[in-house]
Amino acid sequence: MQQSKYIELIENELLPQIHLSTTSPFDPIIVNNRSNSWKTIGSGNYAGVFSHVSHPQRVVKVYGRSHEELKKEIDVYKKLGTHESYSTLITYGDSYLVLKKLEGITLFDAVVRGIQIPKLVIEDIDQGLEYARSVGLNPFDVHGKNVVMFEGRGYIVDVSDFYKQGYCRKWDDLKKAYNKIYQPYLYKYHPPIPFFFVNGVRKGYRLYRRMQKK
Questions:
Q1: 203: three-class secondary structure by DSSP
Q2: Are 147 and 126 in contact (CB under 8 A)?
Q3: Dihedral of CA 149/151/152/155: which sign?
Q4: How confident is the model at residue 26, as a pLDDT?
Q5: 193 phi, psi to nearest 5 deg
Q6: Domains, the chain, ranges and CATH?
Q7: Are 45 and 29 in contact (CB under 8 A)?
């Protein structure tokens, strides 16, 4: 499909048929998708992500709030260029990005489903974050819901906060939990863990870190 026709699908069949809302600044965007041709494949703090059957190797990330953040994410992708740990920016519009699709399961969902997370996945993500630092970015808000693994390798799917300053400890804390709890107690005989429990740990961690900042 020519890129111009793909843009027409976004502008005419996707954007008019979706509504993005939020109930809390700390929870993901809520997606209401009324389109028959576009599939919702995820949502994050700023945007919903969609794919079209005609071009399964691409995704469209539509911002639901703070379009200034979209401009910053465009700049982040331009700095990252082409690297195996990240998606690639193909084009963009006033409220959306078109990105190369990264296959895989998030580390959060892998824990819920009882799928082993190899050490190499953690090492791949570490190397990807080090590359981001080498091009002048600051990996920020990296956690188990925005990194994925596919065929035993790790990838970073959300770079929207890499322009921020300061130290974000989420990835370092996740690695500590991986090394001290996951590897010795869960990895070998990895049982499925109920979603409500894993999500409760996630929310409890975020609340704990916010309280520490006060």
A1: helix
A2: no
A3: negative
A4: 67
A5: -120, 125
A6: 3-100 (3.30.200.20), 105-206 (1.10.510)
A7: yes
